[in-house]
Specification:
alpha+beta, UDP-n-acetylglucosamine1-carboxyvinyl-transferase, Chain, 4-stranded mixed β-sheet, 16 helices, 23 strands, binds ligand EPZ
Length: 435
């Protein structure tokens, strides 16, 4: 088991490049099954979740290899559509593999992905959307068996703008005969990146980033669409968009330590809601091109209300980090978690560090304290682990964050990122296993 050992009290300073987005890379890796040509993915982050997704693709016959700057994938030999059970349970978001498997093979089998630490994570919107495309779905013995040998386009309205369900339906619909329209689609930037990738593969997808996405589907539509010259037909190159949650986490780290940090390779427009809340807490933030500069010289001020919402609202994946920030703010802050039903587990650990708050259902009222006290805490989920690490940066004394493997799911060595900005932090692995 790995732990992060953090000595609090050092204001962060310096410049850091934001890595590629986990939540863009994962669906794009799944969509690589829809490419007849090799794929070169630049800025694909080297995370546990990516490693698990590659293991799943490998089990289906996909060949892949990393080199210095990119991940190369060749899906020409992919020959199976039954997802490996253990791996797809470990990576529950792999449920969006159903779409590309159905589009490629006309069939797909996966395990019912259990819930996870932040909620029971239903997949009804995924299955209902696929059913509307004409996919026959049977559930037995914990397996989901899908028959999509004759999918047809449909007009699908999502009850909730689910990110994964939007992605699943997009990827299946490229091979459904006729046009598919997804209404009330998720608008996250990662959906736009998936659309960009699908269009590079030659598929007709429009509207990502808005609530209405159109897909022109049908067998062989990719061949028809990709009229590139011989060189272009060799390999599909794509650079994954920067990770807006990693960027937001680093900005929060600067805010909670009273530091001055510059991010490059960032997309300010993707974290407008996060920057607005940091400004409300008293930080000065300047954004120019792909550079964001934050300066936080005083104790954070209270943030009246943070409500997590689908994009472009405040992202649920930044809730834990702001929870940590508000525990040391001057005043009383409120957070409402509207997206997931069990995403306050980091609260109990922050209490052990001296935080003061009241919880009622999905609402937290936080009374800021002057200083947290370092102690041993346990990460219960990915973003909660990042939040505890940030709390340790501001705490008096030493904080030991256990279960750091959970943090590896979404950050390429968070300790190294923070240490490069002056944080006094190190990682201790019980084993020598790579994250
Ligand atoms: C994606 O998860 C992200 N994961 C999550 O990031 C992120 O928190 C979430 O979107 C919201 O932005 C990836 O992209 C790999 P949803 P996803 O479907 O697709 C309900 C992180 O930390 N719902 O938009 O699973 C669901 O219960 C992770 O990087 C249904 O009811 O999110 C939840 O309340 C955590 N039925 C809400 O929608 C369904 O069929 C949002 O879920 C699907 C979802």
């Amino acid at each position: 088991m790995a732990s992060l050992i953090v000595a609090g009290g050092t204001p962060l300073s310096g410049t850091i490049r934001v890595s590629g987005a986990k939540n863009a890379a994962l669906p794009i890796l799944a969509a690589s099954l829809l490419s007849e040509r090799p794929v070169a993915l630049y800025d694909c982050p080297r995370l546990r979740d990516v490693k698990n997704m590659l293991a799943i693709l490998g089990a289906l016959g996909v060949r892949w290899a990393w080199d210095e700057e990119k991940l190369l994938l060749d899906t020409s030999a992919a020959n199976a559509y039954v997802m490996p059970q253990g791996l797809s349970k470990e990576l529950r978001s792999s449920i969006f593999m159903l779409g590309p498997l159905l589009a490629r093979f006309g069939h797909a089998v996966c395990t019912f992905p259990g819930g996870c630490e932040i909620g029971h994570r239903p997949i009804d919107l995924h299955l209902r959307g696929l059913t509307m495309l004409g996919v026959g779905i049977r559930e037995e013995h914990g397996l989901i068996l899908c028959d999509g040998h004759s999918m047809t386009g449909a007009d699908i309205h999502l009850d909730y703008p689910s990110v994964g369900a939007t992605e699943n339906i997009m990827m299946a619909a490229v091979r459904a005969e006729g046009e598919t329209v997804i209404q009330n689609a998720a608008r996250e930037p990662e959906i736009e990146d998936l659309q960009t990738f699908l269009r590079k593969l030659g598929y007709g997808v429009w509207g990502a980033g808005s609530s209405t996405i159109r897909i022109s589907g049908g067998r062989g539509c990719a061949d028809h669409m990709s009229e590139g010259g011989p060189a272009e037909r060799d390999c599909i190159a794509h650079r994954v968009i920067p990770d807006r949650i990693v960027a937001g986490t680093l900005l929060c780290a600067a805010a909670i330590t009273g530091g001055e940090v510059t991010l490059c390779n960032a997309v300010p427009a993707h974290i407008a809601s996060v920057m607005a809340k940091l400004r409300e807490s008293g930080c000065s933030i300047r954004a120019e091109g792909d550079v964001i500069r934050i300066a936080a010289h005083a104790r954070p001020r209270e943030i009246k209300l943070i409500e997590t919402l689908p994009y472009p609202g405040f992202p649920t994946d930044m809730q834990a980090q702001f929870f940590a920030l508000c525990t040391v703010a001057d005043g009383t802050s409120m957070i409402v978690e509207n997206v997931f039903e069990n995403r306050f587990k980091h609260g109990a650990e922050l209490l052990r560090m001296g935080a003061s708050f009241t919880q009622k259902d999905r609402t937290i009222v936080i009374r800021g304290v002057e200083r947290l006290m370092g102690t041993r805490v346990v990460a219960r989920d990915l973003r909660g682990g990042a939040a505890l690490t940030l709390a340790g940066l501001a705490a008096e004394g030493e904080t030991i964050v256990e279960n750091a493997e959970l943090i590896d799911r979404g950050y390429e060595r968070l300790d190294k990122m923070l240490a490069s900005l002056g944080a006094v932090i190190r990682r201790e692995d019980a084993e020598t296993e790579e994250p």
